[in-house]
Amino acid sequence: MKKIISYLEKLTPYFDKFTANTYVSAMRDGLIAPMYVLLFSSIFMMIGYVPNTWGFYWSDEIMALLLKPYDFTMGLFGIIVTVTVSKALADLKNNDRPINKKLNPLAIMISSFSAFMILMADPIEGGITIDYLGSSGMLFGVVIAFIIPNIYAFCVDRNLTVRLPKEVPPNISETFASLIAYSLSISVFWIFDIVFRHFSGGINVSQAIMTLLNPIFVMADTYVGLSIINGAAAFFQFLGLNGPDVVLPAVKPAMFMNLAENQALYAQGLQPIKTLTNSAYDMTAAFGGTGATLVLVFMFAFLSKSKANKAVGKAAILPVMFAVNEPLTFGAPLVLNPLFFIPFMVAPIANTILYKFFVATLGMNAFIMEVPWTTPAPIGLPLGTNLHPLSFVLVLLIIVVDFAIYYPFFKVYEKQVLEQELLSLDNELDGHENKIDVASLAKDLSDKVNVLVLCAGGGTSGLFANTLNEVKVHHGIELNAQAGHYGQHNDILPNYDLVVLAPQVSSHYENLKKQASQYGAKVAMTTGKEYIAMTRDKELAADFVLAEMSKGD
Q: CA-to-CA distance for 530 and 331, rounded, in angstroms?
């Protein structure tokens, strides 16, 4: 097993490179950005349909009012994602472009919106069709979002623009500067739409793609397909990457389409049966974070006789309950730990199979609501299925099964750690052997440092930032920290002096370093144990910040 783990470690840079790819990053950032739209729309699904559980039904007039916000948020999700992905790609491309060759993100967003509408909205008497403005049109919407920034880059690089006299105010000249790029973008997709409909018998491109990919989406929603997807996410997480970021962007469009289909089925009084949805992953396969670690953290906290394991468990128990399991996966560690490879892979797959069985065989509702990923899974699972009675049984069964999977491996690991403690071979949790004279370094720094901490979901970065903010002033330097997830930083980066990357997003270091250098900001990477230690030790976190700020470019 150790040889296998060693081999996988050698492959990690290649996985990092894939995760940091500009288009993969843009798709991930663009899909994350509008998640609040899904959460908001789900509120109205809850208000409209949760009372049905107790036999109460709203009148048709009231239901129409309740579902209007849903129809014009989730029902337009394809447009929203097209716009957000196009902006994310424009921002990433701007990192490598000189100041006088920057792309205009706003113009690109408008172009993407216009192109999407030309392709997806068909005129009918009294209006337009909206069938493909939602999740059904999202897949080709991403294609639009990938192409249009490149059209703008083509025009900017060749100075294809309308030049006005310098006496014209900048806000007006900027409008005309994007005219050629906008015209070319719209013309490309307009001509494509005409040609495609001619040869496809009049159907639009999204309808054709859905017909073509439907067998693949159906396969992905089977026991085997779900197990491969969720097992792959756990596999990459085990390597120290952000597993969901590597695997799930490829199936996110299917997830959102399945959620919309489940909601439509439920509204018709039918059983929602699509098990491949975003919240289904969060609340079943990732029961307590990727790797399904909710039960394991309780073992560490309450069943361990090892001081080190018990300390990790008690420190991690609250974050893990809210699906932030890095304090456990890096603190124990579980990442690249041969002993935990099998349960880390098997538990998510077992949970996935159980969930699929409850839906496909026992008749439980699949997820009809998007639940915030930080919702504790034992609460989020019933909530997302509209409090279906079987969902409570499933929660208990998942806990029992995950306990049975993890316990034998936990006991072996516990024995090893206890032997190390008896031999006084414990390593210091913070991983630092040489103390740095931070006080002398601080003399050459400005009197205030603003720090932005980024992780995959905004969980552990919040712990780090909160710990750092407890210091306030360190060696005469005022420290201010803010947390977020990678992808939120684009518009606020100029406000910070240092960006700290959590281990699970370290693959973005080079991209972020280029972007930060434009504003004179520095970027720092952290290792697993070092990062987790700094979420608990304010002096250690403050020392790290000052040490990184004192480094040369």
A: 9
User: Pick from 35, 20, 49: which is nearest to 282 by CA?
Assistant: 35
Buried b (16+ CB within 10 A) or exposed e, 137-174: bbbbbbbbbbbbbebbbebbeeeeeeeeeeeeeeeebe
Question: CA-to-CA distance for 329 and 15, rounded, in angstroms?
Answer: 19
**HSE value, Cβ hemisphere, 13 Å, CA-based, for 107:** 24
- Sorted by sequence, the CB contacts under 8 Å of residue 136 that are 6+ apart come out as 78, 206, 210, 257, 260
Global confidence as pTM: 0.79
CB 44 within 8 A of CB 75: no
Element (H, E) at 216: helix 205-220
CB hemisphere CA count around 484 (13 angstroms): 17
Structure tokens at 36: 């609040």
Contact 322, 459 (CB under 8 A): yes
Question: How do residues 58-84 score in pLDDT, each as one tens digit?
Answer: 998 999 998 899 889 988 999 999 999
Residues 6+ apart with CB under 8 A from 45: 70, 263, 368, 369
Q: Which residues contact 353 (CB under 8 A, 6 or more apart)?
A: 223, 226, 227
Q: Which two tokens mark 508?
A: 């973005």
Rg (CA), the chain: 25
> Out of 232, 455, 501, 545, which one is annotated catalytic?
455
Residue 297 has pLDDT above 90, yes or no: yes
Q: Residue 323: left (phi > 0), alpha (psi -120 to 50), or beta? A: left
Strand partners, 480: 450
**Alpha helices in 51-137, H assignment, sequence order:** 60-71, 77-94, 105-120
Q: For residue 199, which amino acid is it?
A: F
- Ranking 112-116, 313-317, 343-347, 405-409 by mean pLDDT, the lowest is 313-317
Give the DSSP letter of residue 495.
G
Active site annotation includes 155: no
The CA distance from 261 to 135, in Å, is 10
